[in-house]
Amino acid sequence: MKGKKPAFPVLLSSLSTGMVADIRALEQISVREPCEIIVYFEKDLAYNSTYEKDLHEYEKFEEHERPFIPLPLFLEIQREMNPAFNDALSSIPLGVTIVRIEQAGDKPRIIGLLPFLDEMDLS
Questions:
Q1: Exposed/middle/buried for residue 78 (C-beta within 10 Å: 0-12, 13-18, 19+)
Q2: Model pTM?
Q3: Using CA atoms, how far apart are residues 5 and 95, in angstroms rounded to an integer?
Q4: Is 81 exposed, middle or buried (0-12, 13-18, 19+ CB in 10 A)?
Q5: In three state form, how does the secondary structure of the chain look?
Q6: Residue range 59-117, pLDDT digits in tens
Q7: Do 63 and 40 touch, CB atoms closer than 8 A?
Q8: Cα 92 to Cα 57, 67, 95, 104, 106, distances in angstroms
Q9: pLDDT in tens, 5-32
Q10: For 14, which of 6, 8, 34, 79 is 20 to 30 Å away at the CA?
Q11: Which is nearest to 98 in space by CA: 12, 32, 34?
């Protein structure tokens, strides 16, 4: 992800597997369109498991203790922990890799992978 700015898609239909999307764009999409966006912290889990299996496997953990979290909750926690979080995203955009887009009942579910800090371009 170093050296390349994340894309800023404004519609769910603009997302594609493999794309690195700005987390702020994903937040806007989640507010405007009926969808579920789940971000993972572990690459292996994001690519080699299913959300349903992971929910079952981690059901005894609080949502914020799992290796994945719904995007709105992730952003809420980050903003509570760091009031300057939004300003930081303007300076250092946070890109989420779109792992897959799947149907979850009557709405789409987007599975994304957050980068490790050492993968972010902080320059």
A1: middle
A2: 0.90
A3: 8
A4: exposed
A5: CCCCCCECCCCHHHCCCCCEEEHHHHHHHHHHCCCEEEEECCHHHHHHCCHHHHHHHCCCCCHHHCCEEEHHHHHHHHHHHCCCHHHHHHHCCCEEEEEEEEEECCEEEEEEECCCHHHCCCC
A6: 999 999 999 999 999 999 999 999 899 999 988 889 999 999 999 999 999 999 999 75
A7: no
A8: 33, 23, 9, 32, 34
A9: 899 998 999 999 999 999 999 999 999 9
A10: 79
A11: 12
- Amino acid letter for position 93: P
d(CA 105, CA 64): 24
**One-letter amino acid of 24:** R
